[in-house]
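hey so u asked for the seq, here:
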Amino acid sequence: MRSSPLPRMSRRGRVTIGVLVGVFVLFTLLGWGVQAWTDWLWFEEVRYTQVFTGVLVTRLLLFLTIGVGLALFVGGNLWLAYRLRPALRPHSLEQATLERYRMLLTPRIGTWISLTAAVLGLFAGLSGQSRWNQWLLFRNGGDFGVKDPEFGVDVGFYVFQLPFWRYLLGVGFTAVVLALLGALAVHYIFGGVRLQGVGDRMTNAARAHLSTLVAVFVLLKAIAYVLDRRAMLLEYNEGAKLYGAGYADVNALLPAKEILAYISVVVAIAIIVFSNAVMRNLVWPGIALALLGVSAVAIGGIYPWAVQTFEVKPSARDKEAPYIERSIGATRAAFGLGDTKTTGYAANNLTPPASLATDTSVVPNVRLLDPQLVSETYTQLQQVRGFYDFGPKLDIDRYSVANKTSDYVVGVREINYGELTQNNWINRHTVFTHGYGLVAAPANQVVCGGQPYFVSGFLGEKAQEACSSQAEQIPATQPRIYYGERMEEDDYAIVGQSDKSRNAEFDRPTPTTGGEQYYTYTGEGGVEIGSFARRLLYAIKEQESNFLLSEAVNDNSRLLYVRNPRDRVEKVAPFLTLDGDPYPAVVGGRIQWIVDGYTTAATYPYAERVNLQTETADELTNRGTFQLARENVNYMRNSVKATVDAYDGTVRLYEFDETDPVLKAWNKAFGGDLVLPKNAIPTELAEHFRYPADMFKVQRNLLTKFHVTDPGDFYSGQDFWQVPNVPDAPDSGQKQPPYYLFTQFPGQAEPRFQITAAVTPNGRQNLAALISGSYIDGQPKLEVWELPDQTRVSGPVQVHQQMTNNANIRQQLNLLSSNQAQVQYGNLLSLPFGDGMLYVEPVYVKSNQQDAYPLLQKVLLSYGDGGSYVALADNLTDGIKQLVDLGKRAGQGTTPPPGGTPPPPPGGANPPPLTGELAAAAERVQTAIVEVKAAQTSGDFERYGRALKALDEAMTAFQQAQQAAGPAPTPSGSPSAPAPTPSG
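ran it, structure tokens below
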């Protein structure tokens, strides 16, 4: 009895499915086409079309090559299996059951095979096109000029060649397995392979076909063993706790894999010969495969395990020493640590030296402004309008003003679209299109009750005239910010749409009259959308009908999108990993965003592998700095300095590391002119380059271990360091961020702009070393100042606790903090000075009133071991003086009072009566305190600033009178408002 065929679908059902599939394909292609077209227009605008075409063509070719190749291989084997079907099949229940499937497949066997192969090829092609970066490096990569220590193969093979070879091998395994499973299914359906009936279970043709595919699989396994030998130099070594082949790997596993490769070739030949020429059955091929499996377990598993367990573990320190040395050398080379200069710093002076008061290189340049805390201050004093914003964190850069170079806290006044009163489409995209101006203040100077001393920005609006410079000392001839960090993906702007009768874009308020100025964009940035076709195109892309209906879009309009500078560089150079902290600089009168770009790799032999997201995370991550993606790398170079013009969005990529083979490969892949040569960097731009923060974090973290170069000491781990937690919040688990300083460290000829971090011994809190990164003649320079193992100098967390827990200082800090205000601590700076350590930590006070902002009120200082000589002063000058006085008393044999000048007595104490000038000075202080309280209650910021300044002057006068009259009590009472501010 013949089985009936499967029921067929009705004509209406087929039409319905066809329509649905057609609609899906149409919308998919439309969406892809719109995205591709708008991307092309964007790349044409920024003049990097070679990136668009290069990536697109490469992805299409890989999609077709991998997809069609796998489809042809699998489809060909399915067709071959069908052609090799037996003409006659024995009668059995099994064959009767399969007959209905044969009746379904046979009339359209070509269609079924083609459809199956096409679906598999589609997925393979999608996988292949995602490997465009590996292919471009494979094609264009060269040599590193460094050979691996085991095989003597150039590192370029591992970085450029090995990843793509391993991918191709994976594709080969996938194709063979799919072909084998598919062929086995076809042979079974059409009778070439049987489970029931008399005679052979497999025809000769089916056996030859399937055994050949198995042999090909085994041959691919032989190739895999060969590549695995190279890849072992990249894998984690449990014995040495490092990356790269260790003793057991080199002496047991490497020979084992070589033997297994030869065995695999023999097994593949045996499968073909014994299956088809000699025995013509699967017994001996099965035995050969079983022997291969046993060999893989015994030779590749048990033997290396035995060597590791019985030979290496009892004397791992000595056995692994040569391989630990390899890993140390490779890691230091791969991450640019090889030229790190390490200097011993005894830090044996625990008494503040008198030279602190006369120093001209370190103390005057101490940075008091914390770019994270003063962001609110910038916003309140330089915001001008409620929809402007400076972001949660500002940046540090250096400028030369009045022939003096120092570090400045800088920020740009950007649009915060969430704060627009009328946040409709017209306002968001056509009226409020840009921010205005770079605002800067010296990082070592404050005025008017703790405010920054603005030398660039809107003057006279909210900031007092006395609190700011009288002129723009960092002028920008084009201050408008059309591209900035606050721009989100959907924050596009339509500009240049004026009909010459009016300017439609809000530009800025007029500082003198309080009016508003409007502007029409005149730059070359943006895509022209004057034509109907372009407007329709972007209406579809943004799903916004106003592109077609609004009168704000006309023949002169240009569309600005991808406006975040980091996103902009990432789109232009998708092969770069970008630093999480772009920063603005005024170069040639224009505001330029500077973005550091890294080339990375994950296959540098023997180098330590790190996760960039983990290694760069600290207190500031996602609070003003971008979080890096989870990317595992073991090679990293700051090879590119990118700039984005804040006005017209022009992107430029400058080569910074001229020796980086990875950047050379990428540049070659995109025509050789994608990245401008290093000698094309403008001098004024180069003056604003800084050692990138994320690169420094990775190097700092690696140096906590890899500063140890002796293999034996490295294995013991006794000399490892660790990065301390945030000093004022050690229980948060967040690492202390590195900080930028313009200062001079021991051994440096002059002050330089550098990024610095302190490290402590592993598991302890005392100071172990300081690490600094800077540029010398345009070249990166890492330096380490290492303290003795048994140093008494405290680390950042200890110092903060010792300073703030000092009895006298704690009382004064409590006076600053109340139910109306809170104390906030700035960067704790670790500064080597006079054969000792100087710690400086600014203290801010923020009122709990609405729209209040932090004001720098006090400065904490410590010298020596962190506990003996501490001071809390109104300003840095007074604090240094206190430390020097304490040091002099110690030199005279007098026990220094910890914490400097005692605080005012408690409210219940009755101080002795004051007379003469001291009484007058005390009365002036009390009057100033009353005015501070009244100003704070009124919410008048200008009055509050004047009151604090008056209190500062009154306290100074009282201290002078106190010194002239000899020891005397401090005037009673204290302001509920913050105490007097430092003045630099």
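The longest strand covers residues 590-601. The CA atoms of residues 420 and 862 lie 46 Å apart.
lmk if thats what u needed
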